[in-house]
Write a structure and sequence with these properties.
The protein has 218 residues and is of the alpha/beta class. The protein has helices at residues 10-15, 34-45, 52-61, 68-76, 83-95, 112-121, 135-149, 156-179, 192-217; strands at residues 22-28, 48-51, 102-106, 127-132, 183-187.
């Protein structure tokens, strides 16, 4: 049915100039501050914030979605949703903002396979922001968030599953981008404003370098 179709056709996706966009992956364990800091960068510096988790949850709730039931199962079990689904949702979301240049992709990629597939079918990220925080602090944060978030995966059992998935699957992604010199590590076991202060400073530095490079080319 028409409702099952993606927002854009395969031909439109193939024509879209993803390579001209500047994608920054935002990684970190659940509760490390990815969403909080991304939202503030949107307000301060004009980034577009795309949360892989939010896109998946929205698709899960969309009436007539061909992926909804599958996504619900993966999220409930703390498993990684197949990359074909997540990448297509991210492509659609980027294409929804054709005039924007700077994108924060939060909570993606979750494993090396997703990273390689995104690089192949979308583009390479310019940077990777990694929010690093001890596990006990994260569990306490998520349990607190679960009291008001209404999210099915903010409970102790799901939290533990998500940590295991994160640990085994996402850690190699962080190491890979560190080797490539693209990783910015932010320690997030500090007061919120302190964490954001460093995050903002690093992004401002990146934007200045980017402008300088553009001027050189011109």
């Amino acid at each position: 049915t028409a409702q099952d179709l993606p927002s854009f056709t395969d031909a439109e996706v193939a024509r879209f100039p993803f390579g001209e966009k500047e994608i920054i992956f935002v990684l970190g364990a659940p509760g490390s501050g990815k969403g909080t800091n991304s939202a503030r960068l949107v307000d301060d510096l004009g980034f577009v914030h795309l949360s892989a988790g939010d896109l998946l949850r929205a698709e899960q709730m969309r009436e007539g979605s061909q992926y909804g039931r599958k996504i619900a199962h993966y999220i409930r079990e703390g498993l990684i949703v197949p990359h074909t689904v997540t990448i297509r949702l991210l492509q659609n979301a980027i294409m929804d903002h054709p005039d924007k240049q700077l994108f924060l992709v939060d909570g993606f990629p979750r494993n090396i396979e997703q990273a390689r597939e995104f690089e192949k079918s979308v583009c390479e990220p310019r940077l990777v922001l990694f929010f690093d925080c001890p596990e006990d602090v994260l569990v306490a944060r998520l349990m607190e968030r679960g009291k008001t978030s209404g999210r099915a995966d903010d409970n102790k059992e799901s939290i533990k599953k998500r940590f295991l998935t994160y640990l085994f699957a996402t850690s190699p992604v962080i190491l890979d981008y560190a080797k490539k010199g693209k990783l910015i590590r932010i320690g997030s076991n500090r007061p919120v404003d302190e964490v954001y202060g460093e995050t903002r400073q690093r992004m401002v530095e990146y934007m200045r370098e980017r402008e300088a490079e553009k001027e050189e080319k011109e």
